[in-house]
Design brief:
The complex is a heterodimer of chains A (478) and B (533).
Chain A lengths: L1 H10 L8 H10 L14 H4 L2 H12 L28 H9 L6 E2 L16 H12 L14 H12 L4 H4 L3 E6 L1 H16 L4 E6 L5 H7 L3 E6 L1 E2 L4 E2 L1 H10 L5 E5 L12 H13 L3 E6 L9 H4 L1 H8 L4 E6 L12 E6 L3 H19 L4 H12 L1 H32 L7 H4 L4 E3 L4 H11 L1 E2 L5 E3 L8 H14 L2
Parallel strand pairs in A: 1-12, 3-4, 3-7, 7-8, 8-9
Antiparallel strand pairs in A: 2-10, 5-6, 9-10, 11-13
Helix pairs in contact in A: 6-16, 6-17, 7-16, 9-10, 9-15, 11-12, 12-14, 16-17, 17-20, 19-20
Chain B lengths: L7 H17 L1 H5 L4 H13 L11 H7 L3 H11 L7 H15 L1 H20 L22 H9 L6 E2 L16 H12 L14 H12 L4 H4 L3 E6 L1 H16 L5 E5 L5 H8 L3 E5 L1 E2 L4 E2 L1 H10 L5 E5 L12 H13 L3 E6 L9 H4 L1 H7 L5 E6 L12 E6 L3 H16 L7 H12 L1 H31 L8 H4 L4 E3 L4 H11 L1 E2 L5 E3 L8 H13 L3
Parallel strand pairs in B: 1-12, 3-4, 3-7, 7-8, 8-9
Antiparallel strand pairs in B: 2-10, 5-6, 9-10, 11-13
Helix pairs in contact in B: 1-3, 4-6, 5-7, 6-7, 9-19, 9-20, 10-19, 12-13, 12-18, 14-15, 15-17, 19-20, 20-23, 22-23
Classes of the chains: A alpha/beta (478), B alpha/beta (533).
Protein name (chain A): Aspartate aminotransferase
GO molecular function (chain A): L-aspartate:2-oxoglutarate aminotransferase activity; pyridoxal phosphate binding
EC number (chain A): 2.6.1.1
Chain lengths: 478, 533
Amino acid sequence: MVLSFLNCTSSQTRHRPLTHSSLSSIHSTGRPLISSAACILPEDKEQKGGGDIAVRTVFFFLPLPTMASAQAMPISVWEKLTEAPEDAILGVTVAYNKDPNPVKLNLGVGAYRTDEGKPLVLEVVRQAEARLVADRSRYKEYLPIVGLAAFNKLSKELAFGADHPAVVANRITTVQGLSGTGSLRVGAEFMGQHYHTPIIYVPVPTWGNHNKIFPKAGLKVQSYRYYDPATRGLNFTGMMEDLKAAPDGAIILLHVCAHNPTGVDPLPEQWDAIRQLIRAKGQFPFFDSAYQGFASGDLDADAYALRSFAADGGELALAQSYAKNMGLYGERVGALSMVCATAAAAKLVEGQLKLVIRPMYSSPPLHGAAIVATVLSEEKLLHDWKAELKGMADRIIEMRHKLYDALLQRGTPGDWTHILKQIGMFTFTGLTKPQVDFMREKYHVYMTGDGRISMAGLSTATVPHLVNAIDDAVRNIA
Amino acid sequence: MVGLYPTIERRAIVIAAFEKEAQSSPLGKKREGGGDLRHLQRFTAAMAATNSSAVFLSAVDRCAAADSPGKRTLLERSHSVRLVGTPVTRRAAVWRKAFGLGSNFLRRTISSLGFAMASAVTEKPPATSKCLWEDVEMAPEDPILGVTLAYNKDTSAVKLNLGVGAYRTEEGKPFVLESVRKAEAILAADRSRNKEYLPITGLAAFNKLSRELILENDCPALVENRVATIQCLSGTGSLRVGADFLAAHYPNAAIYLPDPTWGNHKGIFPASGLCMKKYRYYNSQSRGLDIEGMIKDLKSAPSGSVVLLHGCAHNPTGVDPLPEQWEVIRQVIRDKGHLPFFDCAYQGFASGDLSQDAAAVRSFAGDGGELLIAQSFAKNMGLYGERVGALSVVCRSEVIAKKLESQVKIIIRKMYSSPPIHGASIVTTVLGDKELREEWMSELRGMANRIIQMRKQLYDALILRETPGDWSHILNQIGMFTYSGLNKEQVAVMTRDYHVYMTSNGRISMAGLSPSTVPHLADAIHAAVTGNN
């Protein structure tokens, strides 16, 4: 037995240490236990405690079959897998949930909270859902690959306006997608396969997941300057320079409104200049619309940039999400719209989009789209929704004011006016990574590493705690 | 294929480039299997009729060899390839990359070079007034889902949709299970519920109940926490996420599919980047399983290949191995160190018994080896449009299962971030409540039995008409479909003259039949087979 132990340390080094439980599973399948269970591999010492050593020692002295007669323990085909890191944004909530401290604040994910700190399901959504569920004439048949037709039509009209020339001319093909992410991915896959210049320019900074989705779809990611840390506003000159230097025909990612993470949006006249340049260079705009209605509280005003691009005769792509503005986060409701030069082209594009979707998930989920279609198609529900949406946007603006006032009152060093100027759900605080880490460790305040806080996660009751944390961090941490 | 090369000019570039290389390139000839090269040759042959201008020479060569730094930069940038040295070495670098990366590289090269060529010739960017997508190919309709589209367009008063495998009642209506309606009502009435994002891996309670359903509660793999289960978008989504994972972490292995198999398998695996091969499965003579052929092919596949297996009620043939045949299959797969990937879309639908229908999967999961399972609730819980399913990976240890799960999350985050909540909540409510679960199981048995009844009735109707041929396979085949044995032409006759819609491989969805429509179908089959109208 001693010999076999020595043998196994050299020749069996590829075998992973067996846990106690997996040893018993081998017993249950009737295969002989091999003495490599007695191997002590270097990795063991980190992973396992002393208890396992005792287990192994026991097995070591049992009358085990010799190596010759034992069946070799097959190696897992996943031997070489490493633990993947937690997603940078979603991992914040994971860490928050693990935190046992009674006083903690989650300002990570952009999910709306009431002033009581509770998630919110919109009243119109509850009403629509109740109606759908009670209607026994409804079925759960597969949707077409492109999704619920009524939903697609209403989404297109919400984004572009029902009487927009591109809508009227039937030049837009809209397919239901899995919220913003899914719509971006399907659009990017299509562009990667069919567009002549598979290079996409994203603003610096941008939503973290953009940089994961586009390469996967075969698009090379480049960037253009966007945020100016000095002014905490838009680096318009830098942006224009970089767009000009970018190749003709490149794809340009644009946030429709309430830029994530900075909350900095171009002014209308700046949007006009951006549009002129992009069109002059034959570049292809790819819009990401996750916050329509959250920027100003007005759905049409928030769509100004998108609609101006769609009206100038050029083509574009739009990924649209209902996660935030209809609070349908987990239902995964969104849409991808391709504005084309002609109705015929739009039809061709639709066919190719189906070829992307069918091998990915066949067809989209019914429930969320049915809720949206119900709300958008009924005057009363539509009206009530707009009011609830404005209510959410207003509460966020109120939190901005409360936070700003509290910081002023505290006398916290620094210029905090950007809290008031930035638009949408987030504030790009300007806090550094060490300050962010400090706030998490000492105050159990959770935010993404770039200093972005979700104002939607703040409440009147929690503002003081956040102010304490920011004040302490800014005064004492670099 | 043609859509990849949008304009005639660009096609010309491809032709010129690859005709030349295909004939003379030593790199091309040496490529193992010559897969890409043969593909190119077939393509160039097919494009030979296209008007190819002599002005556009081998663009790849030209740009690689060119002294124009601009063109080289374009190539380098789009394909991360360093073009250094002499024209010959630069060309070699490009071609090596091309054969390494295959058609994606070529497509992009031609696109970027086509653009470069165009701008070189015209000295200005492509006209913005020209629609970018003008030359995009008209995509063909999906063969399975297209059947329903065609059926819907048909204005005939008497028509029959036997295309998609969606259950229909005796009245020919779609069916929402009572247990599902009850669960949904409970969920909708509960104001304490919210619509927050699920974790990337989905609803934890759903994942637990799903794996316990397919594997049974006391399966050692479950007890030892060796199974990673991730909520996905029904069967398709589970297959795709699993395939993407294999492409990333189990590379160089081909996936072996039964011949024939569900059509969309052949869409999913290439999209993930997996190479597909097939193993013999259906014996059209006997209309049963070609077990010898299957075993031979599994034995001759390289060790460690991925093997796709239908858990039960094989789609489209309805032919399943017997338990003793499954045992042989399992031994061969384990001996060769193959990795089984089960597609389980019909648990409960084949025999009406959930355990019986999961017997094959469970025997694999119980032998200590590893496997993947794509599980769908579309049919057995009638949740088609809600897109509910799960990918389970049975691993050798809990540690590995945890790591594997973390890697699957990476794949999902860039596809759709997290799965939809509604359908999974329904499943959780039904499976988690004793009464609802009982009610569901009884409804499931009801659906399976009705299908079996339709089989008997169709068989009897054909016997009555003395339709030529042996129709006993209608009784022997299992699950929702009958692989009728009718050929494309016969199917076309049935559609044209009787407005009977089915997939062109002769697959009939028995769930779409009812006692009142069986005679019509029998007439249609009779006409198609005898050639009389």
